[in-house]
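Cont'd.
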Amino acid sequence: MSAIEELAEDRVVEGVYAVASKRRLRTRNGADYLALELVDPSGRIEGRVWNDVELLDARFDEGDAVRVLGRVERFRDRLQLEVRSIEAAPEADPGALAPAMRRDPDELDGFLDFLAAEITHQRLRATVASFVGDPSIRARLRELPAAPDGHHDYAGGLLEHTVGVATLCRELAQIHPRLRSDLLLAAALLHDLGRTVELGRGPVYKQTDEGRLLGHVHLGLRLIEERARGLDDSTQAELLHAVAVHHDARAARTAEAAVLYHANQLDAVAATKPVGEP
Amino acid sequence: MSAIEELAEDRVVEGVYAVASKRRLRTRNGADYLALELVDPSGRIEGRVWNDVELLDARFDEGDAVRVLGRVERFRDRLQLEVRSIEAAPEADPGALAPAMRRDPDELDGFLDFLAAEITHQRLRATVASFVGDPSIRARLRELPAAPDGHHDYAGGLLEHTVGVATLCRELAQIHPRLRSDLLLAAALLHDLGRTVELGRGPVYKQTDEGRLLGHVHLGLRLIEERARGLDDSTQAELLHAVAVHHDARAARTAEAAVLYHANQLDAVAATKPVGEP
Amino acid sequence: MSAIEELAEDRVVEGVYAVASKRRLRTRNGADYLALELVDPSGRIEGRVWNDVELLDARFDEGDAVRVLGRVERFRDRLQLEVRSIEAAPEADPGALAPAMRRDPDELDGFLDFLAAEITHQRLRATVASFVGDPSIRARLRELPAAPDGHHDYAGGLLEHTVGVATLCRELAQIHPRLRSDLLLAAALLHDLGRTVELGRGPVYKQTDEGRLLGHVHLGLRLIEERARGLDDSTQAELLHAVAVHHDARAARTAEAAVLYHANQLDAVAATKPVGEP
Amino acid sequence: MSAIEELAEDRVVEGVYAVASKRRLRTRNGADYLALELVDPSGRIEGRVWNDVELLDARFDEGDAVRVLGRVERFRDRLQLEVRSIEAAPEADPGALAPAMRRDPDELDGFLDFLAAEITHQRLRATVASFVGDPSIRARLRELPAAPDGHHDYAGGLLEHTVGVATLCRELAQIHPRLRSDLLLAAALLHDLGRTVELGRGPVYKQTDEGRLLGHVHLGLRLIEERARGLDDSTQAELLHAVAVHHDARAARTAEAAVLYHANQLDAVAATKPVGEP
Amino acid sequence: MSAIEELAEDRVVEGVYAVASKRRLRTRNGADYLALELVDPSGRIEGRVWNDVELLDARFDEGDAVRVLGRVERFRDRLQLEVRSIEAAPEADPGALAPAMRRDPDELDGFLDFLAAEITHQRLRATVASFVGDPSIRARLRELPAAPDGHHDYAGGLLEHTVGVATLCRELAQIHPRLRSDLLLAAALLHDLGRTVELGRGPVYKQTDEGRLLGHVHLGLRLIEERARGLDDSTQAELLHAVAVHHDARAARTAEAAVLYHANQLDAVAATKPVGEP
Amino acid sequence: MSAIEELAEDRVVEGVYAVASKRRLRTRNGADYLALELVDPSGRIEGRVWNDVELLDARFDEGDAVRVLGRVERFRDRLQLEVRSIEAAPEADPGALAPAMRRDPDELDGFLDFLAAEITHQRLRATVASFVGDPSIRARLRELPAAPDGHHDYAGGLLEHTVGVATLCRELAQIHPRLRSDLLLAAALLHDLGRTVELGRGPVYKQTDEGRLLGHVHLGLRLIEERARGLDDSTQAELLHAVAVHHDARAARTAEAAVLYHANQLDAVAATKPVGEP
């Protein structure tokens, strides 16, 4: 059994991977083939099925775990897996096969608890705790990417990005004492909460219907409104406002909302290779 | 002698301030008057000279220290000083009368030294040290704003902003190990170096002719090129690149340059009241 | 007692109006004065208080009904009221003095009921009915403008605009049978519902704190979510989506959402004088 | 003989279609093939010629009617016609084979006459009548799309879009009495007149040389100027202005021009599937 | 009689000028006054009427020639004329009093004839000649500015700009032989022809009603279409295209049209002081 | 031996060309091939290696001169060379094989000397002479394109573009006497100087590492700063400013800088085929 990051050119491989995407295409001279993206916790690799397409295509769907036999070849400077045989592997959990972050999730969970405990405003801390203390939310943070096809696009990227943005915001509140640190920290910890409702399971992370129509920003606001009943109206509005505009700098009406916008940008950029970098 | 931040409505005041701006205007019914911005380390106040304009106008220039006798009145929710008598105060240093930052400059200087010492790459540390160890540069950092008419627009704002951006970049390099922390930290510490050549003395901080034509970005690059002779070409180009694009995100070709752009934005935004905030 | 639309140059006037805005300014030669916007159901006029400013300023606030004695003069092609005496008129209802629309509100209410009854989808009709059948909502539609300082900026403008957009959407569903007419009509009738929570009473229509931070779009979504419990998730998401993007065409994911955006634009433009029109 | 909308997978087909586009491509391994878009009044289908390419290519041109023998296959969720034999069918009229609108053209022609008769301003009505009463113009409206490769991209789309925009404008003039309804309705009916000169015959609708260089907006203005001699200068300028800016909202100087711009947008959007709709 | 460019501070002046603009304003303490822009061929000066406003205002209109008695004062670094007496001077021609260009108009007329004679394509030369040889067009070129409130904003600016753009285009055709020089030169000479219909007489140069609604680009196209009957359709379309897009680079479909756009920009920029220049 | 511009369909060819680009691709059915861009002074042609790919690929690199045997075929309206045999030709100089300009380089060199001699300001002329009189700079101007993948993308394009922009600027200084002609001409002659450091040898013209990070604008400024020591600070700043903003019109602070920006645009556009031109 071969981890994807260990695959090397010209090797014959047998492994269990998850199918992150599957498209049926056709060569210019009329033959059908399958173009796959195969993943496991160690990485990603393109796969191609050139033969027995009709037969093999029927054996698995996008999102399935599969058992694959093939040969690794080099194409345009990247490795590619020429698949000889492939079949569903129902005994494996495809969600557990999604590419994982490199950082230690327990350490990140510890940071998250630490940051949530830094909030001194009692009701804001309680509001944040109602999410951070919810095991199903915590499990989703470790499972999901921060932005599929964007930055932190691996399982646990959502946890990593949440901790990254909140860490930056905590630092900023120390550098700039005029900022309301409790409000800023709470908003940072909850800003991408809506992702937990917007996205389906790995390795595909397909948007739910609600996710596609309403987006993670509105879904996050709805979640906060449902659980933040203890907050006074004014603090709740401030918190919702900062979350609401975290993708729209011009709509920011408070310093904390503007800062959250830019901290979110900064952590995303720091995790992304710029255009033109070799 | 009255500090500006202690002025109150309906009080008669005598004080020594610096003239941050001076314009001669005329009322709609034909009378000339002077509109002044007066400053001292504690703050700013508008001043108006309604009488003896011809005489008083000849006594002082923009940028001078002046001795003022007047009365504080309220106009559109702000205090204003109605000037009865004003004359140059050549014994006072106008640069020392510019509004000052509230944070302790010695503490900030300590942070600056600490951050410069964090650089482990020997030649980058030496390049940074050639500026951070230069007493005239250090004096300028404590004297100048980061961006006149923009964020951190008081004496020492340049030191405060430099420390703020470098602190954020140091934090980011810890969250994102892929970033080259020495390069990022060096670029952060030097990114606004050109301000020391671009701007004249307080309280006016007028652009020099070179400053107006070449801007602080190019002037900073020139300074680094003059002193960074010890650096290998490749590291020097990386450092210059990050400084060169710190106002132009799309031109960034390296992760560190992109991160510096956004860290600079973030610290500036955190120091600025957003539009619409009451 | 003089209606504002009947005021003529060089006439002495006595009337009861509401104060839509009040600012204390000062002439260039140092005298305070009050700049007012006075309104009644027939129109608007600028007012100026040049004398006894201290005394008269203390007698009333922005938003009050006032009794005014003054003289109408012409200034830069517009009439202006030079106020000689002014005092609060607590017996009058300032909300009832806001400028009113010219169209018959009962007729518009009839159109609104007719359009709401056109929806054949049972649960969408019920959702719309929970708002259209709510007397307090109906009263707000007749009291509020559609967009203060924008289009339909008079009492009842919200009702007029809601009927206008829904009428256009009904016509469009007939021209383009592919559109889902029930969804489109329901979204059109509810698209500006959040205004009823965002804005305070006339004639000032000041944003509430929540209104300033969350905006009428989000406040409308929250209202619909609270009352649309009977809708299946999918229909609710479609309805919320169309309301959510009615100011952001690029975010539209359905034909109905895109059409609502443009119908809203079109009705607003049709009610507004273009730049440059004499 | 098989209508395109009735074609089904795995069926052998014989039919007469028009060639909306024809490109000679080459497979990656060096074999030439033809990629066709075939149309008839019921729809569109992609065609591929894999064999005897040299021979078959010489038999017909883009825009011709052709007799085709082939087999329908499914490729990437869409049907495609694998062509075995193809030859020109000179007895068929390719213009008559362009995809047609689904709405009844006689009914739309009736609406057009009704709308043109609604204009009460005598000379505007005469100007509009000089086009609406011209049989060659009427024939072109039934033959042409509103915007090739855009909205209403089928024969008669131009008629359908003209009626749609004019219907919306008539409704708007009723909702907003301040609009000059005769001017608005005339401009709506004539706004895309230039398409009749810009575009060649179906099914290709290729731009004429003049169409490519001058565009349908200018060509429409020229047509109106040639026939609107009876109009007074002022009304003619108003009419030309509204037509001239119907793709450029910022240039609108009258309410009617601004409304026409947005009504045109709205009808186009209502006829187009938004990005992201499944 | 004093030419405006010779006026000096503190001098009493008597002169005949034209009124380029006239507005009735009011001081903050309630007194009306007139704000004038007075011009003669040598320059411009602001004028103010503080006394006898009612009486003097009735004596002349914007666009009139006036006889003025006043005193020159300095206000905010500019000279201003305090008017003591002013009356219409019907014996003077206000158009002849508009500020004039500094270059010799006869020399420019010579260049214009030279450039028009450089066109070798017979029918293009004839088309251009039908305008360049028209005395009323030639008179307008010497009377009008190129862009009122923009570049070349003095009498004859239109002639100067036309010669400037055509000279650049002739040079470009020599540097870049691929350009069709006759087409480019003809389009350059005619590109602002529409100004002769768009603008009224100096010194006000007010847009005509047609000018406001149709703009100089369309009015120029109409003029060319009226006189270019001798041109073949293809050449005419190329010529019209280049003129049509001379304010819209993205619409250019030919190299000559793109070049004309940029040559027009360049000559306008070369005649305009940039923002920020002292 | 066949020059590329003389190649014709269906001919067998033997020639020595340079490899401007080389990519290894794969057909849809799995076979590797090489896609080449081959150049010689007379032009460019696409090449394809379908057979013996492994063997032939190892024989040469991008940027090499190669000896080729093949057959010319037509593909999608363009000629293409089907390569049968290819090998490095180390005796040929690949730089000398880059596509060359059509204009006479000696004539252009003459123009360059003439333009440089037109500068009357002694120190500006000396500064320009230090580059124009430098044989290695002159050789680079004849070797390099003005903008690889952009306008003037052939050997000597840099010389041609430099002469073109300077010629336009000289003409402009004659039309607009207010421009400082010496400054403008010097800036025009030096504006793209940085290209000589940014780009590697032909036919690939790959950016150096410094070129990629610092760009030709900054590299040009550095060169001028190194050699312009004789200039007074003020003139040097004006010269550097104009070069610095020649890609950023909004940053221009002087008329000469704004004019250089637009002259650069104009010469580039005049050398480029517009989108949509057949």
